[in-house]
Design a protein that fits this description.
Elements (H helix, E strand, L loop, with lengths): L28 H15 L1 E4 L2 E4 L12 H19 L14 H12 L6 E4 L5 E4 L4 H10 L2 H12 L1 H7 L4 H7 L1 H23 L8
Antiparallel strand pairs: 1-2, 3-4
Helix pairs in contact: 2-4, 2-8, 4-8, 5-8, 6-7
Amino acid sequence: MTTSSSTPSPTPRPPTPPPPSRPLPPAGSARRGGPAAVGLLGCGLLLLGGAALTCCTPAPAPPRLSPDDVIKAATQRLTDDCLLRQGLTPPRPGQSPPPDAERERVAEAMFGAGRTELSLRLPTGHVVRAHTDGCLAAAQRRLYGDQRRWFRTSTIVNNIEPEAAHGDRTLAEVRADRSAELADWQRLRARALTEAEALLQRRNGPASS
């Protein structure tokens, strides 16, 4: 008698459990995390010892103007305002030249017109002249306090080297002779720098001359 054997059926495996679901974040966490995530992306995220640290690079500070540039900027602002009050366009490098009549009006308004009121003869024989009217003279009075005094002092100090060369003297000798003018120049320039800094700090307001 032949005994028939049947192939045993495979043992069924237990069903694979589904992966554990992650707990839902508390309400409002996505809203709170949004700006923080943006900030981390903008600044960068640094992992140190298991702690997350934000690393931000500060924006570079604007270059600091030199004292000469501060005074020049304040002088230009004062002269620009002076010209604009007269209905004139302040000149700028690279702009199209205005008609001759307009250019003459701007020059007279800026530097003064007619006979020059200030004059100084240098040891070299050259004569330097300037006006006491005009926008530039008004700006100098505002910054230096005394335009006539600044004209004389700055003209002498700016021509110390030509004076030394003309007299066949050393620069140190001429500087020693001009010590009073040099000290006066420093005092006037310090005053102008203080006035210019205050003026530029109020750049959003009107500048009166």
